[in-house]
Amino acid sequence: MATNSSDNVVHLDEVIVAMVPFPDFSHLNQLFVLARFIASHNIPVHFLCLADHNQDLKLCVQGGLGSSSIHFRDLFVPVKNRKMLAMVFLRFNIIDDDDHETMIQQMQDEFPLLESCGGPYVAVLLRKEHELNLNSGEIVNSCREVEEFLDKQDVNSVIFVSFGTTTTFSQEQVNEIALGFEQSNHKFIWVLREADKKMETEKFEEKDGKIELQKGFEERVEGRGMVVRNWAPQLEILGHSSTGGFLSHCGWNSCLESISMGVPLAAWPINHDQPFNAFFVTNLLKIGTPVRSWARREELVTALTIEKAVKTLMGTTEGEEMRQRAAEVSNKVKSSVSRGRPARKEMESFISRIIK
Q: Of 21, 69, 122, 166, which residue is the least packed, with the fewest Cβ within 10 Å?
């Protein structure tokens, strides 16, 4: 924006893009990918989000593509009582129109209307935002340890476990997850952050204290299992040759990254758009296995159920077939965004439109 000093008339001579993602609808990383693409065309982007999310993003893009044109603005008062459902299907040309229509009809039959838990949930996020105390040195060390762990493992031998930044589990459920992985005898990386601290389902009251793993768990799985309590480089982990599966809440960002990297999923949707996404990867693309049915979402997921899902994905012919299909879908996705292909053309068209 430029100002003519003679008559104080403001003239617009540049485009500035502002982005306000909704993290609990998996908008955060996808909008940030878009922000980096726009910024790579020398268009200033202002990314408005809660301070803790901005801090994570800053750590993963230091010196990266277009990062110098991205300006982070911390939000301290999120929108309250929002109720919305958002799904974004990028045109990767991996399913035809008939399958797409069938998928939509099946989803409408399978799931009721889902709504955000909005107001009280955001209030807890706001309290946590003020308590944030990230140590970038610890995070860098954690990332290095993850890379070193993966480099020592065989191809497709490790399952990555992450439930996003807004998923909440009880201590009892955390214990079952730990026991399930211990009993599976498979190698794993489990991201267990303080953001996963339990909030009461009805009252959304934040509990005090750190998430605890049962005594001796980390010692018993040492060498084949790793627990990460800081931010983890999810895309890099999924892209590593040692990673052969992803136990996920099926946030859309996580699904896209897993699909793009050719990694099949063990689908454990929690809320929002996640059951739709899980249905998409398990029933239509057939590159995932469900951990439990959506109809039983209020029940505790037992260690035996988790163990079975891990073994199915990582140690069976069925799991290997999922990996092969995931690799095929990944190739289609990568092809669609290469220069001259439909998805790339649409993005370039978008840039051309906003700078006119």
A: 69
